[in-house]
Specification:
This protein is an all-alpha fold. 82% of the residues lie in helices and 0% in strands. It has ten helices and no strands. The radius of gyration is 16 Å and the shape is globular.
Length: 198
């Protein structure tokens, strides 16, 4: 799994050295909101290090792409879940009927805060975007929670890079294996948090 994550990481990262870094960031942020496993923070960090004066622009691109991707995930859940649910349950880690039942009960009590928490933390955002559509939570609430949480997350990353610069990138490259394992633990922990704590 670590090797696969490393290859995906390197593939995502290489876009930072091309003229298509901005569009690639938008596509990555969009896709990560429903299916892709690598968070857009990886490319956002690389782009902010390479072009720190454009950090806020990159944060906006990541936020915009992620919120649109979340809306797309909502649409899949709302209109096409019966057609695609088997694929997600079979091929996307963490998607199980039990998890979705738990998500449904959470939405019934804490709709805004469930979306906000998943948008800002390692709790898998894609589970929430699809679940929000499946269980038809209020779209305006979903949109506002997504916009606030994703923007806070990406602008925080951009600010850290703008303030501390390339040292953050060097740290990630040096400790990638540890960070990838930590990321996986946080990802799994996010699912466990949804299932057993909330």
């Amino acid at each position: 799994m670590t090797k696969l994550m490393r290859r995906l990481y390197d593939w995502v990262l290489h876009w930072a050295s091309t003229p298509y870094g901005g569009p690639a960031l938008f596509i990555l942020a969009f896709a990560e909101s429903s299916v892709f496993p690598i968070p857009p923070d990886v490319l956002l960090i690389a782009l902010c290090v390479a072009l720190p004066t454009r950090a806020w622009k990159f944060a906006f691109i990541a936020s915009f792409g992620s919120v649109l991707g979340g809306m797309f995930g909502y649409g899949i859940g709302w209109g096409f879940w019966a057609l695609v649910s088997e694929y997600f349950f079979k091929y996307i880690p963490g998607f199980t009927p039990d998890i979705f039942a738990k998500v449904q009960s959470l939405f019934a009590q804490y709709d805004f805060w469930v979306v906000f928490t998943a948008g800002f933390t390692p709790i898998p955002y894609k589970v929430i975007t699809l679940g929000a559509g499946v269980f038809q939570i209020n779209f305006i609430i979903f949109f506002i929670a997504s916009m606030v949480s994703r923007s806070l997350r990406f602008f925080l990353v951009a600010w850290l890079l703008y303030k501390y610069g390339a040292g953050v990138r060097s740290f990630i490259d040096k400790y990638f294996n540890l960070l990838s394992i930590t990321f996986l633990v946080l990802l799994i922990g996010g699912f466990m948090f949804i299932k057993y704590v909330l």
